Amino acid sequence: MENNETRLGEFTLLGLTDNAECELILFAFFLVVYVITILGNSLMIITITLSSGLHSPMYFFLRNLSIVDMCYTTSTVPKLLLDFLSKVKRISFFGCVAQLYSFISFGGIECLLLAAMAGDRYVAICMPLRYTKVMSWKMCTVLATVCWIIGLLNSLAHTIFTFRLPFCRSRSLNHFFCDIPPLLALSCSDTSINEVVVYTAGGSVILGSFTLTILSYIFIVNSILKIRTATGRRKAFSTCASHLMVVTLYYGTIVFTYIRPTSTYSLDQDRVVPVLYGIITPMINPIIYSLRNKEVHGALEKLRKF
């Protein structure tokens, strides 16, 4: 009886594969990715904090992004690594709640921070003479705080509306972590309200941030085209291309996963998509946004000599 009651409060995660040999290979792969993510983002946080030359609005947001990326990947990868070594991949009900809340929270905060960073670049390139006044430390602090608050509240709405549902079907989640689509698929009640919440709350954060980011870069590109020197244009376009590549990958996979009716979900396919924006992107963000930057290279060199 006790065992049955315990299982009623658990979910079984089907994971990314049921092949034992593949699981060992995936364990090694995701362990390397996770270590690189933690080390890379930790290095960026330490470098930005200790280097006075990097105490500017752009690096203020980059430090926030690094913190979010570490939390983002930590919400899923440690459990995923443990499951690769386990025969039965179980997660408690409250563990599932915590995982869903943290994953959606940090995903939303990342969306908003990307928009804030795009806004910072817009002011720097399109309004250089007013940059210091507009992007004051007070403004940066307010923007970052708003990003965190909206992300946390958005996730709270999703979590409450998801776990208010009765789960009277199988407790097997066709995913490697607790996410909204597979949880809705297990419910035996009407999930239309949940879909409305996904479209309104989640859609507002995702599509709103994405729209602001794209609009900012449209104006940025327009300003870059007015630069007289070819070298200056190539350098600026290269920076924008790298940023837009990550933005497209990140937002594109999120929109593909969440902003569509549950009737179109293909859970076997969708369980792989979050690997891109929830695990791979946090690993490459320090490289694309920071480690290719000469100012960061100089700060790292000074810290190494120190």
From TrEMBL:
This is G-protein coupled receptors family 1 profile domain-containing protein. The chain crosses the membrane at residues 24-48, 98-119, 140-161, 205-225, 237-259, 271-291. Signal peptide: none annotated. GO terms for cellular component: plasma membrane. One of its GO terms (molecular function) is olfactory receptor activity. It comes from the Eukaryota. The lineage of its organism: Eukaryota, Metazoa, Chordata, Craniata, Vertebrata. Keywords: Cell membrane, G-protein coupled receptor, Membrane, Olfaction, Receptor, Sensory transduction, Transducer, Transmembrane, Transmembrane helix. Its main location: membrane. It is found in: Cell membrane. It is a multi-pass membrane protein. Residues 40-289 form the G-protein coupled receptors family 1 profile domain.
